[in-house]
Design brief:
Oligomer: single chain
Order of helices and strands: HHHHEHHHHEHHH
Number of helices: 11
Strand order of the largest sheet: 1-2
Radius of gyration: 21 Å
Shape: globular
Number of domains: 1
Mean pLDDT: 88
Low-confidence stretches: 1-6
């Protein structure tokens, strides 16, 4: 039976919200990477669960071996690009469907990530021993740095997707046949998009590992669902506030906001002292609700239009 403990302390809720904001920003950064494949390329890439862990594993192992955390996070980003390229090659060169190519990459990354972490399920990177960019020990600074990094990434994505190459990638996702007719190599665009997407996901994984103080072989489990939740929540709120004629940079910003709002819900669920094992169920319910909202709004509008037309006919 699911019981809610009503003996709740609102002070504890407000004390845990900043941690939720910090983690929400980091998951929002991951969602920005997923947005490239999910929305811009219209490709179902399931390799992100593996590349998120890959970024954390690479980053932590490099930091514990004395590397500067900024250089470590850069190498984590590059490792994600390489993993995304593998998915791209499987899909475009070998003709494997995108969803299966992503599963194969994710599956193989489990062993690779274990090997990177010297076959240990988790590796600690304590802020007391090592220099890190973010830490749950210093949440306000983590929120600030996370927000700055998210804004920089949004600016870079806004710039890149306004270039000729970025526009070609967006055209590939919108209408592959038309893009091909315009002389765009759609396979190359897909490979670049998958590589860039997984690079950003791995970058986020490296930040998350530093924030939580360890990398874990299962830290990327369910990452795609959290990323999709952030995208859907951000899009629904953005469209609700600004309709659909929205600046591309603003859409990207609201994806990060979606990550924060998603984690707010998780914090509240934990504060209600519900069984943590039910978090995946609540995540599925949250995503379902936000996926259904646009469709329900469209149905209500169409019903009003039909009612209006019927009343006009009666007149």
């Amino acid at each position: 039976m699911i019981l809610v403990n009503f003996d709740l302390n609102f002070v504890n809720l407000f004390m845990t919200l900043p941690g939720g904001i910090a983690q929400g920003i980091l998951w929002g950064i991951m969602a920005l990477g997923l947005y490239i494949t999910f929305r811009l390329l219209d490709v179902a890439d399931l390799s992100v669960d593996g590349t998120f862990t890959l970024g954390g594993a690479v980053c932590v192992m490099l930091i514990t071996n004395g590397m500067n955390p900024w250089l470590a996070i850069l190498i984590a980003f590059i490792s994600g690009i390489l993993a995304g390229t593998v998915t791209g090659v499987l899909h475009t060169k070998l003709g494997i469907p995108a969803i299966l190519a992503g599963i194969l990459t994710q599956f193989s990354l489990y062993s690779i990530n274990l090997a990177i972490m010297t076959f240990k399920s988790n590796i600690a990177v304590s802020v007391d021993k090592y220099q890190v960019i973010l830490s749950s020990r210093y949440i306000p600074l983590s929120i600030l740095f996370g927000f700055i990094l998210a804004c920089i990434l949004i600016c870079l994505m806004y710039w890149y997707f306004g270039t000729e190459n970025g526009s070609a990638m967006r055209a590939t996702g919108c209408n592959p046949e038309m893009a091909k007719a315009q002389g765009i190599n759609i396979n190359t665009m897909k490979m670049i998009g998958l590589a860039l997407s997984n690079g950003i996901v791995a970058f986020s994984g490296g930040l998350m590992a530093q924030y939580q103080g360890f990398s874990d072989i299962k830290m990327g489990q369910g990452a795609i669902v959290i990323g999709l939740a952030s995208i859907i929540i951000g899009e629904v709120i953005c469209n609700g506030l600004f309709k659909k004629a929205t600046n591309f940079a603003l859409k990207l910003f609201f994806i990060v906001i979606g990550g924060i709002l998603y984690y707010f819900v998780i914090v509240i669920v934990l504060w209600l002292k519900l069984d943590p094992n039910l978090l995946k169920l609540f995540t599925a319910i949250i995503v379902t609700i936000f996926l259904a909202v646009p469709n329900m709004q469209e149905l209500s509008k169409s019903s009003f239009r039909r009612a209006g037309k019927n009343s006009m006919k009666e007149i």
